[in-house]
């Protein structure tokens, strides 16, 4: 009887156990911590099943676990039984499933979610969203690039879910979207209280090549480098430091884009208001070279006032040289004010005007006719260029090289670097030209020889050579050639052989050419002129007297 009752009780208990629904694998179940040992929590999940979970799964990233015996927790049931007869459970997976359900609802309703950045990965950071791990791209950390994300690590803060895929386990979040939203609200409020022309205090937040961003209490304004000071500012860091409090004026507000333009120089007096009084035309001032370009150099006359020295006004002599070879940045120079345009805020300056015109100086020191010495700098097809004092050149034209030789021949004897002497023939200060002559240093033998001789004059020459085509004669060292046809009036007497070398012959001058240095003479022309003169004085061609009678009478009259 007793045995029968025992069997019945066992059968009832067995049936009861079969009636109990075992939870499905892959579901979240509730359990109770019954012991903590060896870094693990032993959890009774009911159904006569126990499992083990590492304590670290009960702690948020970077924090210590808070778990004690008797605590009720939810865990994820991976498998009902493992090789040791225990349930395979996970607190982390349970939190993940719970988190995904919560995050999907937040994503659908576009609500913010809380999380903490706990790690750095390629291209961004990992964020714990209360059990689910999300990716935070580097571009979504802040409204501006973040150099050091250390202060943000482990701090609980809101995020916006940009994209999520539960099947793939991907979640992408943004911290920047939250900041931009709050900033937009804050900006709208601050901008609403600002007016153009208002003077406010701000803190320099960031410095760039083109300016500085100034925090006006929740909204940033741009202080452009050109609005920092009236003078030229090469880089904003010259006058500003990050964190510095500055007083600025609101120049412009764009209500649509919420952009604010700020200025500092507007709080100071404009130096251009007194430029014409301080720097009258023609006055000379000392300035500092601030910038050099291909077309000239900018010189600061005072803070905020710069003028341009055009390349054409930099040097009297260096015409095709880059300005950087004449002046250097930060160099102090004397300049003359040439022109002022206050409307366009431009001042034209001259550097060479502060020095004497070297051509004027040369003209004073070397009047026409004076002798100079210089080096041949260049040889061209039309003459020599000779280097003179103060970096100026003088030119010796081909025609001024030699009395005796043609210019093309004479120039062949000169080389660059030769030191030559020459006479100054002309100085044109306005055209910046100096004419020189080498042949002027020697006497002009032709001019001396023909001094007083004019066309039509009768002179006595000496025969130096006899040729078939005529005879060569000499007059005061100048050679001339009388052609056969000019040896006599009568053709029968036009014979060169009737003359002897050394004979003296009277000839008539037919041409005196100083340029070609040639003296034209003719015996025939002299005889014709004598005949004409004799006819006029002693007879006529109609009187019947012979030429011999007339010439004889003329000769007697001369006696």
TrEMBL record:
Function: Binds mRNA; thus facilitating recognition of the initiation point. It is needed to translate mRNA with a short Shine-Dalgarno (SD) purine-rich sequence.
Entry protein name: 30S ribosomal protein S1
Taxonomic lineage: Bacteria, Pseudomonadati, Pseudomonadota, Alphaproteobacteria, Rhodobacterales
Family (UniProt): Belongs to the bacterial ribosomal protein bS1 family.
CDD domains for this protein: S1_RPS1_repeat_ec1_hs1, S1_RPS1_repeat_ec2_hs2, S1_RPS1_repeat_ec3
Keywords: Repeat, Ribonucleoprotein, Ribosomal protein, RNA-binding
Gene it is expressed from: rpsA
GO cellular component terms listed in the entry, alphabetical order: ribosome
Domain S1 motif: 26-92, 110-176, 197-265, 282-352, 369-439, 456-524
């Amino acid at each position: 009887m007793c045995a029968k009752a025992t069997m019945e009780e066992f059968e009832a208990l067995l049936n009861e156990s079969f009636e109990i629904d075992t939870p499905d694998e892959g579901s979240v179940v509730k359990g109770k911590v019954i012991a903590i040992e060896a870094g693990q929590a032993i959890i009774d999940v009911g159904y006569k099943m126990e499992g083990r979970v590492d304590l670290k799964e009960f702690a948020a990233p970077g924090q210590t676990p808070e778990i004690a015996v008797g605590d009720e927790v939810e865990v994820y049931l991976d498998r009902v039984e493992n090789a040791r007869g225990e349930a395979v459970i996970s607190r982390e997976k349970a939190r993940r499933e719970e988190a995904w359900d919560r995050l999907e609802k937040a994503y659908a309703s576009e609500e913010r979610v809380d999380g903490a950045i706990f790690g750095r990965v390629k291209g961004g950071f990992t964020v714990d969203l209360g059990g689910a791990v999300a990716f935070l791209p580097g571009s979504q950390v802040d409204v501006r690039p973040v150099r050091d994300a250390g202060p943000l690590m482990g701090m609980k803060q809101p995020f916006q879910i940009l994209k999520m895929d539960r099947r793939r386990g991907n979640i992408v979040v943004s911290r920047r979207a939250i900041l931009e939203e709050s900033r937009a609200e804050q900006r709208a409020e601050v901008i609403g209280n600002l007016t153009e022309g208002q003077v406010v205090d701000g803190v320099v937040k960031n410095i760039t090549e083109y300016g500085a961003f100034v925090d006006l209490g929740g909204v940033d304004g741009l202080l452009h480098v050109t609005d920092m000071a009236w003078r030229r500012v090469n880089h904003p860091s010259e006058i500003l430091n990050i964190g510095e409090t500055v007083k600025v004026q609101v120049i412009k507000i764009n209500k649509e884009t919420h952009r604010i333009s700020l200025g500092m120089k507007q709080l100071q007096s404009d130096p251009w208001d007194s430029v014409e009084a301080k720097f009258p035309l023609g006055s000379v001032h000392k300035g500092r070279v601030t910038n050099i370009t291909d077309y000239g150099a900018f010189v600061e006359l005072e803070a905020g006032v710069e003028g341009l020295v055009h390349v054409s006004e930099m040097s009297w002599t260096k015409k095709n040289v880059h300005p950087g070879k004449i002046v250097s940045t930060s160099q102090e120079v004397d300049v003359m004010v040439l022109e002022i345009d206050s409307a366009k805020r431009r001042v034209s300056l001259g550097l060479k005007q502060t020095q004497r015109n070297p051509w004027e100086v040369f003209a004073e020191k070397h009047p026409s006719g004076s002798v100079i010495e210089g080096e041949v700098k260049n040889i061209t097809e039309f003459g020599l260029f000779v280097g003179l004092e103060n970096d100026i050149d003088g030119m010796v034209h081909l025609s001024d090289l030699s009395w005796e030789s043609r210019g093309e021949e004479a120039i062949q004897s000169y080389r660059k670097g030769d030191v030559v002497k020459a006479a100054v023939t002309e100085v044109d200060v306005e055209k910046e030209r100096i004419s020189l002559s080498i042949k002027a240093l020697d006497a002009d033998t032709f001019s001396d020889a023909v001094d007083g001789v004019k066309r039509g004059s009768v002179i006595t020459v000496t025969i130096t050579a006899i040729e078939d085509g005529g005879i060569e004669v000499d007059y005061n060292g100048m050679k001339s050639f009388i052609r056969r046809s000019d040896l006599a009036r009568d053709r029968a007497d036009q014979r060169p052989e009737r003359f002897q070398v050394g004979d003296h012959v009277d000839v008539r001058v037919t041409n005196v050419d100083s340029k070609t240095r040639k003296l034209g003479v003719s015996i025939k022309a002299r005889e014709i002129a004598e005949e004409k003169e004799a006819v006029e004085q002693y007879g006529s061609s109609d009187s019947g007297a012979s030429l011999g009678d007339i010439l004889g009478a003329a000769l007697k009259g001369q006696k």
